[in-house]
Amino acid sequence: MHQLKKVSDCRIFDLNIFLILIYCMTANRIPTAHPMDLLLVIFAAGLGYTAYSIVEKRVLNGVAIGRKVLLTYADQNNEMKSELQWTGIVQRKLRIGNKSDNFVINLNEPIIHHNSVFSEVVVRERRLGNYIGSNKPTAVQLLLPKQGMRKDKYKWDAFDHVGGLTLYLQ
């Protein structure tokens, strides 16, 4: 019979590993003994990770407002490559369609794109688990408004998706 170590002897880095370990200790068998039990463990782990991600995103996104940022080029859009970096301040969150995790950034120096000048731009996260407000570099999508941004809610067709950037909090 396989002996399990005490939880205090193990380093647990992931919620999934922790839940499977708890299951093994209480069931006193390997998780594949019954397929339905394994599905329940996987479901619980996924639900726990989802809840953790939602809380983490809300906390980190709330920290981002009012912070100085550096935006650097990180995509294949060669039209944007001539201007390699911009600095600015995260002003506020903006709702586009049913997504409220978009941020308005007031730039110190404007972006010139297709003969238009933009001193305010909108960014949103590109990858799950990579949030604006984190101290790590964040891959973001750059959205340029077709008109001035005076409202708090817009439709997606009010913006041009220009490309990808990397956002650093300063």
In short:
This protein is α+β, with helices and mostly antiparallel strands. A hairpin with a 2-residue loop joins strand 2 and strand 3.
Oligomer: single chain
Helix content: 25-40%
Strand order of the largest sheet: 1-2-3-4-5-7
Tally of individual helices: 2
Q: What percent strand? A: 35-45%
| H/E series | HHEEEEEEE
Mean pLDDT: 77
Helix-strand makeup class: alpha+beta
Report the C-alpha radius of gyration, rounded: 22 Å
- Report how far the terminal alpha carbons are from each other: 54 Å
Shape: elongated
Q: Provide the low-confidence segments as ranges.
A: 1-13
Tell me about the biggest sheet?
Answer: 6 strands, antiparallel, barrel
How many DSSP-defined strands? 7
Key attributes of the depicted protein:
170 residues, alpha+beta, disordered N terminus, 7 strands
Structure, described:
The structure is a single chain. With 170 residues, this protein is an alpha+beta fold. It has two helices and seven strands; from the N terminus they run H-H-E-E-E-E-E-E-E. Strand 2 (85-96) and strand 3 form a beta hairpin. Helix 1 (15-27) runs antiparallel to helix 2 (35-64). The chain is elongated and about 65 Å long. Residues 1-13 have low confidence and may be disordered.
